[in-house]
Amino acid sequence: MEIVPDPLLPPRVVRVVDCDGRHFIAKQHAEHDRYARELHAYRTWGTHLDGHAPELIGRHDATRTLLLTVLAGERADSVAPGSPEEELAYHEAGHVLGKLHRATSMPQGGALGATLAQRLQSWIERAVHADLIDTAERNLLNQHAAILDKSLMDSAVCHLDYQPRNWLVGDAFGIYDFEHMRRDARIRDFARLEFRRWQAAPHLRTAFLDGYGCPLNETERRLLKSFGAIEAATALVKGHKENDLTLSAHGRTVLSRLT
């Protein structure tokens, strides 16, 4: 196989072509856990995304590398904002995610809420240690942790980075980047869209949920706000650690919307 230059691909991801002219994507992971999670996702849940996700062709455990088929299309975040094509992309994104969630759903339980509350508390402690939040902000985040701890929520296999940069649009809709995929609270798959896209463009929320086939009820809307607390705390801590001013600003914006 030979490497084909593709400047649009992120680090550790390359396009390769075999002797028959067939193109593939080789993705190498720096961390074993993410490699194992993405490998498991393709092998276990890929069937629910038939036609909408790359196929796993091979793997190399020693270098933590996956070999995947290439999906046709362009990244959805390159579509013109406000265009009919953008609205259609969100409708298709909702439809495909709905298929995955319905195929893997489990009824409500309390254990997941407790787990998410503990996860939020961990991010709060890191934010406090780095002096990123004041006392009032800490109390606000703690309130949302308490809400999560007492909430019952249904679960499904979630992508957990479901946003336009991981969607492909064209003749068919495709999704990729499964390194975060695991069973989690179903509504949590909406959190990044809610706080990074939908609040500024509510018509995209409407298009997405229409494709998804299930509107949010009042309880789920309140729960989504508490997932925003996880989004805010995570962005603040990671933005500080990675010196990413854009991510830090996003965390600050989301935090301001939780009041």
Helices and strands, with pairings:
Elements: E1 2-4, E2 13-17, E3 23-28, H1 32-44, E4 56-60, E5 65-69, E6 74-75, H2 84-104, E7 106-109, H3 111-129, H4 135-150, E8 153-158, E9 167-169, E10 174-175, E11 182-185, H5 191-198, H6 202-212, H7 218-241, H8 245-256
Antiparallel strand pairs: 1-2, 2-3, 3-5, 4-5, 6-9, 7-8, 8-11, 9-10
Helix pairs in contact: 2-6, 3-4, 3-7, 4-7, 5-6, 5-7, 7-8
Structure description:
- 48% of the residues lie in helices and 17% in strands.
- It has 259 residues and is an alpha+beta fold.
- It folds into two domains: 68 residues, Phosphorylase Kinase, domain 1; 183 residues, Aminoglycoside phosphotransferase (APH), C-terminal lobe (Aminoglycoside 3'-phosphotransferase, Chain: A, domain 2, Alpha-Beta Complex), CATH 3.90.1200.10.
- The strands form three sheets. It has a five-stranded antiparallel β-sheet with strand order 1-2-3-5-4, covered by helices on one side.
- A hairpin with an 8-residue loop joins β1 and β2.
- It starts with a strand and ends with a helix.
